[in-house]
Write a structure and sequence with these properties.
14% helix; globular; Lipocalin; 8-stranded antiparallel beta barrel; mainly beta
Length: 122
């Protein structure tokens, strides 16, 4: 009987410790600071470096609000795996951690290729 009670206590201890909160995967949801926005086209590259008031906030209701370079914008977004659609534009999420995110967009080919990289941090 003692062995059975000891086994039951051990099983309960294992069950309680294995039910601890699991770590969730990173998400775009939340308020991010803009590190920089890099756009390139036809061999020309332009970099905007974020300032302390710049932000992008992805909300759980499918809207994203951004304040970048003095301009406030709110639009829709959706995420599926490593793909994000923001205001109808497809982005690839190339980096997503709890403290950093990078979104990349490209369109066209050859000399008419246009690329945008958005670097964010929390």
């Amino acid at each position: 009987m003692k062995k059975l009670l000891l086994f039951a206590m051990l099983l309960a201890t294992v069950a309680m410790t294995s039910c601890s909160k699991s770590s969730s995967s990173p998400s775009l949801v939340g308020k991010w600071k803009v590190v920089n926005l890099i756009s390139s086209s036809s061999g020309y590259t332009d970099t905007y470096t974020g300032v302390s008031t710049d932000y992008v906030e992805f909300k759980t209701n499918g809207t994203v609000t951004s304040f970048v370079d003095g301009e406030l914008t709110t639009t829709s977004y959706s995420v599926s795996g490593t793909n994000a659609v923001i205001d109808g534009v497809d982005y690839t999420i190339t980096t997503l951690t709890t403290s950093a995110a990078t979104l990349y967009h490209t369109e066209g080919t050859g000399s008419s290729r246009y690329q945008v990289t958005i670097n964010l941090r929390k």
